[in-house]
Design a protein that fits this description.
By secondary structure, this protein is mainly α. It has helices at about 5-20, 25-45, 70, 80-100, 105-125, 135-160, and strands spanning about 165, 175. The protein is built from six helices and two strands. It is globular, with a radius of gyration of 19 Å.
Length: about 190
């Protein structure tokens, strides 16, 4: 909670300027920033109840003992199937909203591949947390699923001749019906 409230406040303050400077859509940019704040709040807060939990302290815990562990462990380690699904769902909104904000896939792919790694390395030094290679894999897969869903959404909108566009005035997405494009110039 200590990270979520300031993260949400910063997101609300900076999203317009970031969207305008980068040429992104305003609302998805806000949602992507809020997704980052939520993800960091859920993953980087110390857990006092888990002190002494088994896990390797430091970056060594991030490395799998054997290659097959990256494939087998994500749904059997760190909370079982439920924990694996929750780890998948944690980064899915970030991948989705990042693609909708940028309307492109390369930068969101880099984000959802690097952020889980950075989070897990940081967790290795937070009391009650530890780095887990299976969490890295499930977080990356969840983020990539979000990127794929966002990319598919954009391509489906283009195929239906209703592209997602940002208005000039507010940089908010404008969904145009049919082949016509709504313009905000007359307001």
């Amino acid at each position: 909670m200590l990270v979520l409230v300031p993260g949400a406040a910063v997101s609300v303050v900076v999203h317009r300027r970031l969207a305008a400077r980068a040429g992104w859509c305003q609302r998805p940019t806000l949602l992507a920033l809020l997704a980052i704040a939520m993800t960091l709040a859920l993953t980087l807060a110390p857990e006092t109840g888990r002190i002494g939990v088994s896990g390797t302290i430091g970056v060594d815990g991030c490395l799998p003992d054997y290659a097959a562990q990256l494939v087998v462990d994500p749904f059997y380690n760190s909370g079982g199937i439920t924990g694996g699904i929750l780890n998948l769902l944690l980064f899915l909104p970030l991948g989705l909203t990042a693609v909708l904000a940028t309307r492109r896939w390369p930068a969101p792919v880099i984000l959802v591949l690097l952020l889980p790694l950075a989070v897990e390395v940081c967790q290795s030094w937070i009391p009650g947390r530890y780095c887990n290679s299976s969490d890295i894999v499930t977080n990356m897969v969840g983020g990539m699923v979000g990127v794929l869903v966002g990319t598919a959404w954009i391509h489906l909108r283009r195929a239906a001749l209703r592209p997602i566009r940002c208005s000039r005035r507010a940089s908010t997405p404008v969904m145009s019906p049919g082949a016509s494009v709504r313009s905000d110039r007359g307001r």
